[in-house]
Amino acid sequence: MNNKIEEALKIIIDEISLLDDDNKIDTLNMIKSSLHKISPINEPIDCVLWEKIENIQANEYNPNQVAGPEMKLLYESIKSDGYTQPVVTYKMDTGNREIVDGFHRNRICNEHKDIYKRTFGRLPVTTIDKEIDERIGSTIRHNRARGTHKIKSMSGIVLELVSSGWTDEYICKKLGMSFEEVLRLKQITGLKEAFGNHEFSRSWEEYESNFEDRKDTIS
Predict the structure, then answer these.
(1) What is the 3-state secondary structure (H, E, C) of 191-205?
(2) Alpha-carbon gap, residue 199 to 210, rounded angstroms
(3) What are the angstrom distances between the C-alpha of 74 and each of 39, 77, 108, 212?
(4) For position 195, what pLDDT does the model report?
(5) Among residues 136, 92, 84, which one has the least CA distance to residue 108?
(6) How much helix, strand and coil, in percent to the nearest 5, is found in the chain?
(7) Cβ(108)–Cβ(75) below 8 Å
(8) What is the pLDDT of residue 11?
(9) Which domains does the chain have, with CATH numbers?
(10) What gap in Å lies between CA 8 and CA 31, rounded to an integer?
């Protein structure tokens, strides 16, 4: 290691050790953020910060649900192994963070005093900077990858994405759905607005065939 960096690092460690716990965490967050700016790895996981839980809020669109036994298991996992996965968040203009993925990890810290005390009332967070429709897509991809998503809520989300200008093809590509899933979710809404960009064909087979012919052009 570069001698100058070693010397600077020793000075920084000595200075941080004099701070109280809250200021230590805030200072380490600042250092992590600064180092991330010069890191050649531009991935969210490259910068995990410890954010105060009162500055973190749920989103309004997450369809993910976890049953009681799984929540108990999640608590036992965090209690025994610690937080091994950060909560994915979006930093809002207010300075607060909106959860993109990890609402139940957030709940564990909120609802269990032992975890709250151990983490100084903070959660490990990563940050993604995307518009609302892309954040919705990100949340759903996380949920579907775990096999947990609520169909009734998904229909409302598909409607919102359609309203944002997402085509059927784009929804299929970004959310890992089939055309049949998208059509069924649109039908669940019972709203004609859901079919605003839907390309009707004489048959479902013809519709799928049309998509097969065009899917290579979808970006």
Answers:
(1) CHHHHCCCCCCCCHH
(2) 9
(3) 32, 5, 8, 41
(4) 54
(5) 84
(6) 60, 10, 30
(7) yes
(8) 96
(9) 39-133 (3.90.1530.10), 151-217 (no CATH)
(10) 13
